[in-house]
Structure formats: C-alpha cells, structure tokens
Specification:
The protein is of the alpha/beta class. The chain contains eight helices and six strands. The chain has two domains: 106 residues, Peroxidase, domain 1; 69 residues, no CATH class. The strands form two sheets. A four-stranded mixed beta sheet has the order 4-2-5-6. Helix 1 packs across helix 6. The protein is elongated.
Length: 179
C-alpha cells in the first residue's frame, strides 16, 4: 500500500473509530463494516459502481442505500459509507476497514498472529498455542491458523514484523548450512 493511501485510510479509519467509540457503537459498526465487506466480495460490479467517478453521487447513494437496507447498519456506518462515496474515497474502503480493525485491536490489546503448521492442528492444540502466545505477549490473542505442507513440521508464527520459525524445514536447512 502506498504511503499516501495508507495515510488516507488511517485518517478515515481513526475518524470512524473515534465516532463509533464516542457513540458506544463500536462493536456494531465493526460488524456492519465486515458484513458490507462480505457483500462487496460477492459483487465486483457493485464495487465498480461505488468507486465510479462517472456516476453521480445521488445515483450511487441510492444503490448503496438499497443494498444497505437489507443489512440494516447503524446510522453511523451508513453515513460513513455515504461520505466515502460522496468524497470519491470508496476506492480506499478495504484499506480503511483494515486500518479500523487494527485500531480497534490496538485499543483492546488484541494481537492476531499467523500460525502456520504442516498439517491441520487439533482444536485442543490450537487452544494450547493460543494460551502460550497469551502468556508470552501478555495480550489477548486471536490467532489465525494456516496449513502449509512445505514447512514439513513444527510451527511458524508471525506476530507483527516478528517471525518465530520453529519449522522442521528451517531446522534441516540450518543443519545443511552448518555441515
């Protein structure tokens, strides 16, 4: 993401976060945004209409209102999305959503590490991994689990910019380098 795009997205996300927090609607606004994101993923045409600079705000806002009438979002969410359309900033929606979620996580002391294993982990082991990560970070942990058979065994955990590589593949490669 370009620096300018990141800055725009973060500013919009922070403004929405502050407003939703102030109104006591943070949880619902988050749900509204995620639900709307799901709708957008299903319709590339809708995304094109909302991002269009050629269609009038009135026409686009009617389309948006019709779609949102089915999901019944908070007025805060509706007004925010209409503002994005009016300001011709809807093209930044995905980045804004990601920034909003990061801000919310930071405020709530939540981290979301990526944990990769060679095979699908049992629910019991996933709980153990989560508990271990909470003990290490002293934060609430919501891990995302992935499977990648290329690591052969062990776990690779990415937390922010840090990577903890306990994979069998890396251990074998380091043995080859040493010999």
């Amino acid at each position: 993401m370009r620096v300018e795009t990141h800055k725009i997205a973060k500013n919009y996300a922070q403004a929405l976060f502050d407003l939703a927090h102030e109104e006591g609607k943070l949880v619902q606004v988050k749900k509204d945004l995620e639900k709307f994101h799901g709708v957008l993923k299903l319709s590339h045409e809708l995304k094109q209409v909302l991002e269009s600079r050629m269609i009038s705000f009135e026409e686009v806002s009617e389309v948006l209102k019709d779609i949102l009438a089915k999901t019944k979002p908070q007025s805060t969410t509706l007004n925010f999305l209409l503002n994005l359309v009016q300001q011709k900033r809807f093209v930044f929606f995905n980045e804004i959503l990601n920034s909003f979620l990061k801000i919310k996580d930071e405020q709530e002391g939540v981290v979301r590490p990526h944990v990769t294993s060679a095979v699908e982990l049992s629910e019991a082991f996933k709980k153990e991994v989560k508990k271990s990560l909470e003990d290490v970070t002293h934060k609430k942990v919501e891990p995302q689990f992935f499977v990648d058979s290329k690591i052969l065994g062990g776990l690779v955990t990415k937390l922010g910019s840090k990577v903890f590589d306990g994979s069998l593949k890396t251990k074998l490669e380091s043995l080859l380098v040493e010999n």
